């Protein structure tokens, strides 16, 4: 099973090498690597081009944001499995994608998801927060649950059937996608209880109270545009869930098993 890994980037020459190297270091897996750049002028394009033909497909042009770029990458993909890895993220070890493929082959599921480490930007070995997804139960969406989309691996056919990211949303398109695919359309998902992705801290929706409020409004819209109704407490719990994810003074130890 070929895996199409899509990295979107805009003006991030400082971190893009880590993302690319983590993909190229994956073992025992057939990879199509697609990088979509938003027209960077800071040396990012040169950094990507320095990897030569190790990058399967590369495009650099202005776009309307990260979700437009992700949809563009998905449309370019030819692999049976789609993986999304942002330029600030990297895989925890070289056996991530081979384990993902194995899970697809063994379970015949539509999508696989795992866990994610948030790490300190200046020291990627320092863990500041854990996103421990846990086994899926439909009722958990009412409690603010969702899997982290960089640790979400889906068959390309799922995007063909149910669509990609809703670009009407600015910060909650990943939440809306999970809600639409898993909760509304009941795709078959399989959980791997391992930490596969490292994400540097600093997400846009959490940088200020105002941004968190705007994100909460978009979270509600994600339910509405799908014709769904959350519980009265759902959107209150969603940001609160993150408080239980913090772990201080922990250092990364790769779980390769």
Q: Which helices and strands appear, and what pairs or packs with what?
A:
Blueprint: E1 2-9, H1 16-24, E2 30-37, H2 44-49, E3 57-60, H3 66-76, E4 81-84, E5 89-91, H4 96-107, E6 111-120, E7 123-131, E8 152-155, H5 156-162, H6 173-184, E9 189-200, H7 209-224, H8 234-241, E10 246-251
Parallel strand pairs: 1-2, 1-4, 2-3, 6-9
Antiparallel strand pairs: 4-8, 5-9, 6-7, 6-8, 7-10
Helix pairs in contact: 6-7
Instruction: State the distance separating the first and last CA atoms.
Output: 21 Å
**Helix and strand sequence:** EHEHEHEEHEEEHHEHHE
Q: pLDDT below 50 for ≥5 consecutive residues: which ranges?
A: none
CATH class (first level) name: Alpha Beta
Shape: globular
Number of helical regions: 8
**Averaged pLDDT:** 91
Helix amount? 25-40%
Radius of gyration: 17 Å
CATH architecture verdict? Alpha-Beta Complex
CATH superfamily: Spore Coat Polysaccharide Biosynthesis Protein SpsA, Chain A
Q: How many β strands by DSSP?
A: 10
Number of domains: 1
Percentage of residues in strands: 25-35%
Major sheet description = 10 strands, mixed
Secondary-structure content class: alpha/beta
């Amino acid at each position: 099973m070929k895996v199409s890994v899509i990295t979107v980037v805009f003006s991030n020459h400082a971190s893009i090498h880590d993302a690319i190297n983590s993909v190229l270091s994956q073992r025992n897996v057939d990879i199509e690597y697609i990088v979509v750049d938003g027209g960077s002028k800071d040396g990012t394009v040169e950094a990507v081009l320095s990897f030569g033909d190790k990058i399967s497909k590369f495009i650099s042009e202005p776009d309307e944001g990260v979700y437009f770029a992700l949809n563009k990458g998905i449309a370019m993909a030819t692999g049976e499995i789609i993986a999304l890895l942002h330029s600030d993220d990297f895989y925890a070890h070289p056996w991530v994608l081979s384990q993902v493929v194995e899970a697809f082959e063994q379970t015949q599921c539509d999508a696989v998801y795992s866990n994610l480490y948030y790490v300190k930007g200046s020291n990627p070995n320092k863990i500041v927060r854990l996103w421990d997804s846990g086994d899926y139960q439909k009722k958990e969406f009412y409690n603010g649950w969702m899997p982290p989309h960089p640790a979400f691996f889906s068959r390309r056919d799922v995007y063909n059937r149910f669509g990609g990211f809703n670009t009407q949303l600015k910060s909650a398109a990943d939440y809306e996608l999970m809600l639409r695919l898993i909760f509304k359309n009941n795709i078959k998902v399989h959980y791997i209880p391992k930490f596969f992705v490292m994400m540097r801290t600093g997400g846009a929706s959490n940088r200020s109270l105002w941004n968190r409020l705007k994100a909460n409004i978009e979270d509600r819209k994600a339910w509405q545009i799908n014709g769904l109704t959350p519980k009265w407490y759902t959107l209150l719990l969603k940001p609160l869930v993150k408080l239980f994810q913090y772990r201080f003074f922990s250092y990364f130890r790769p779980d390769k098993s």
